[in-house]
Amino acid sequence: MPSPIEPERAPAIYGYSLCGLPYSSIEKVTKKLLRGEYEREHGFLPKPPEFAQMVRAEEALIRADLRRSQEIRQTKMELQDIRKRPAPSAESIERVRALVRGVTRHMTSHERTEGQNGA
Predict the structure, then answer these.
(1) In terms of domain of life, where is this protein from (predicted)?
(2) Contacts 24+ apart (CB under 8 A), 39-44
(3) What is the pTM of this model?
(4) Cβ atoms of residues 17 and 54 within 8 Å
């Protein structure tokens, strides 16, 4: 226990510093502390604000993992939707090709016109 904290007040002080933080993150940080997974210079038990900061950092990692998991799930669902779409018809493919040819002709004629006017 950090030396400036009176042992009988420790539960209340730590409880106050951890108030509102998720139990799962508190538990994870506690396990990591017990296994020695944190680089600590001074003793085993961190001071209440430091412990709360460690818990918030762990919660941020958990939330980032959850966000990535949700993004992966969303991407998989979108890919499934794309695979379910019917293949484009020959008519729609030809319409797109005609549109591309028309735009290409327009761009080519526009470049020629600019080249003649600029020279």
Answers:
(1) Bacteria
(2) 43/2
(3) 0.60
(4) no
Instruction: Specify whether the CB–CB gap between 3 and 45 falls below 8 A.
Output: no
User: What residue has token string 């990591």?
Assistant: 32
CA distances to 21, 28, 100, 102, 104 from 96, rounded to whole Å, are: 55, 56, 6, 10, 12
Domain span at 111:
89-119
Residue 6 pLDDT exceeds 90: no
Contact 85, 52 (CB under 8 A): no
On whether both 56 and 112 belong to a single domain, the answer is no
- The tokens describing 91, both together, are 């008519």
Same domain, 106 and 54: no
